[in-house]
């Protein structure tokens, strides 16, 4: 038996730390204040400098996850449990409840994971959302689409990353969209149904919120750039500390959090502005992906991973802005699926180019959403930029992206180059 480890700093258990490219900053920022122990699905590698202990378990097995958490609790005096992994929010809440540590109720987290449940709660509490019908067959999907009126959106009720989500403009497109959503929905843990929803037509944003003991602070607004229809692939994000949209969308963001029953934690709320008014897409009860939390820190100085850890330990988070600027991320994709044969950045490295991260290497196979892939199978990497305004940060990101060259072999004798 291992001897319990004593530390002068509070100990936080992080469940499913993720990959270094997108979640390394989260672990690093939490470890700056807390001793961190991990519950992870593989032996730690990049995480080692930031942790004091770990347990490897099958994260998809709820019983194994709970047993691993209890084992770590037996070796450390844990003060909180957190995750920024979408698929782990419910089991992490259950673990915190079992260990008698602060958490939003597991039932609430389950409602956040099930978009059908969330839609019904939004409707019950008068939160502006979208018409939505849960279906189990293509025939039901067709009937729902005709009742709602084309164009509609088909999506799995329980997933993430816009995987399996498609716009459908008429009945001829419905079968393929339903099959894609049904395939993804079959992998769900909170629900395996498909949703047919009203298309919310307007710019998409996300609202980054922090809730502590039932009080929500709207920290930042993130403006998104999406791929052309029928997919909803996220291509870029930007955060400006003084974005005037924050005051416009704050009441709706708070109403959504209250409707779902979220009492504590960091939330990533997706909306569309329809005729200038916010309408809810969904609420993710965890830190945003795609480095959005990093953009928030660059633009405002507010540390969202640290805030999540503070709340998990029942400590009031420090949400005082220390900066007033902007930051952007450009997510890099090739213009065709295929085998990667060449990937370089040939531009300058000005101070405003904050990060350039390639996540692929030559020989890797890339499959874009248009060919049946998703963000995990098609993305080359990303770059982040800073500026005084969101518009300038986005322009700098596009300029830097044009200096990225990716060469792919799609078929023998055929090549395509993407920037």
Features:
419 residues; alpha+beta; Rossmann fold; Dna Ligase, domain 1; D-amino Acid Aminotransferase, Chain A, domain 1; 4 domains; four-stranded parallel β-sheet; 12 helices; 20 strands; disordered N terminus; disordered C terminus
How does the SSE layout of this entry go?
Blueprint: E1 11-15, H1 20-31, E2 35-40, E3 53-56, H2 62-75, E4 78-83, H3 89-98, H4 106-113, H5 115-124, E5 132-135, H6 138-148, E6 152-156, E7 166-168, H7 174-185, E8 194-198, E9 204-212, E10 215-226, E11 234-240, H8 245-260, E12 265-274, E13 277-284, H9 292-300, H10 304-312, E14 326-332, E15 338-345, E16 353-358, E17 365-366, H11 375-378, E18 381-387, H12 390-401, E19 404-411, E20 414-418
Parallel strand pairs: 1-2, 1-4, 2-3
Antiparallel strand pairs: 5-8, 6-7, 6-8, 9-10, 9-12, 10-11, 11-14, 12-13, 14-18, 15-17, 15-19, 16-18, 19-20
Helix pairs in contact: 1-10, 2-3, 3-4, 5-8
In the predicted model, the low-confidence regions spanning at least 5 consecutive residues are 1-5, 412-419
How many distinct helices? 12
End-to-end C-alpha gap: 54 Å
Could you report the average pLDDT, rounded to the nearest whole number? 93
Structural class: alpha+beta
Rounded radius of gyration (Å): 21 Å
Oligomer designation: single chain
Shape: globular
The helical percent reads 25-40%
Give a written overview of the molecule:
By secondary structure, the chain is of the alpha+beta class. The chain folds into 4 domains: 11-103, 3-Layer(aba) Sandwich (Rossmann fold); 131-198, Dna Ligase, domain 1; 204-324, D-amino Acid Aminotransferase, Chain A, domain 1, CATH 3.30.470; 327-418. Helices cover 30% and strands 30% of the residues. It has helices spanning 20-31, 62-75, 89-98, 106-113, 115-124, 138-148, 174-185, 245-260, 292-300, 304-312, 375-378, 390-401; strands spanning 11-15, 35-40, 53-56, 78-83, 132-135, 152-156, 166-168, 194-198, 204-212, 215-226, 234-240, 265-274, 277-284, 326-332, 338-345, 353-358, 365-366, 381-387, 404-411, 414-418. Strands 13-12-9-10-11-14-18-16 form an 8-stranded antiparallel β-sheet, with helices on both faces. Strands 3-2-1-4 form a 4-stranded parallel β-sheet, with helices on both faces. It has a 4-stranded antiparallel β-sheet with strand order 5-8-6-7, with helices on both faces. A hairpin with a 7-residue loop joins strand 10 (215-226) and strand 11.
């Amino acid at each position: 038996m291992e001897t319990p480890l004593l530390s002068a700093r509070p100990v936080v258990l992080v469940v499913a730390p993720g990959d270094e490219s997108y979640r390394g900053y989260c672990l690093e920022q939490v470890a700056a204040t807390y001793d961190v122990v991990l519950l992870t699905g593989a032996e730690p590698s990049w995480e080692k400098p930031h942790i004091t202990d770990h347990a490897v378990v099958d994260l998809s097995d709820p019983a194994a996850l709970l047993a691993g958490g209890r084992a770590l609790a037996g070796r450390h005096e844990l003060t909180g449990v957190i995750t920024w992994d979408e698929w782990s929010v419910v089991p992490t809440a259950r673990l915190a409840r079992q260990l008698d540590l602060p958490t939003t109720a597991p039932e609430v987290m389950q409602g956040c994971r099930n978009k059908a449940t969330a839609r019904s709660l939004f409707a019950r509490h008068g939160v502006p959302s979208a018409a939505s019908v849960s279906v189990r067959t293509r025939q039901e999907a067709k009937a729902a689409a005709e009742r709602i009126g084309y164009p509609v959106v088909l999506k799995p009720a329980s997933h993430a990353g816009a995987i399996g989500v498609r716009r459908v403009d008429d009945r001829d497109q419905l079968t393929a969209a339903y099959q894609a959503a049904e395939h993804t929905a079959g992998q769900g843990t909170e629900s395996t149904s498909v949703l047919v929803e009203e298309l919310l037509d307007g710019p998409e944003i996300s609202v980054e919120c922090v809730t502590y003991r039932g009080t929500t602070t709207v920290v930042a607004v993130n403006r998104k750039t999406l791929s052309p229809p029928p997919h909803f692939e996220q291509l870029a994000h930007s955060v400006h500390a003084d974005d005037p949209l924050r005051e416009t969308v704050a009441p709706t963001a708070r109403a959504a959090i209250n409707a779902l029953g979220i009492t504590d934690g960091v939330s990533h709320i997706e909306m569309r502005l329809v005729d200038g008014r916010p309408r809810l897409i969904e609420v993710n009860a965890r830190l945003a992906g795609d480095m959005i939390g990093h953009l928030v820190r660059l633009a405002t100085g507010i540390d969202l991973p640290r805030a999540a850890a503070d709340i998990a330990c029942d400590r009031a988070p420090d949400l005082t802005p220390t900066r007033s600027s902007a930051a952007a991320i450009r997510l890099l994709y090739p213009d065709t699926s295929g085998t990667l044969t060449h990937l370089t950045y040939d531009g300058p490295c000005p101070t405003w180019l904050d990060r350039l991260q390639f996540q692929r290497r030559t020989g890797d196979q890339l499959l874009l959403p248009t060919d049946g892939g998703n963000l995990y199978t098609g993305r080359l990497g990303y770059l982040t930029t800073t500026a005084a305004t969101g518009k300038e940060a986005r322009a700098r990101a596009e300029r830097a992206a044009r200096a990225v060259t990716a060469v792919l072999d799609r078929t023998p004798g055929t090549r395509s180059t993407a920037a």
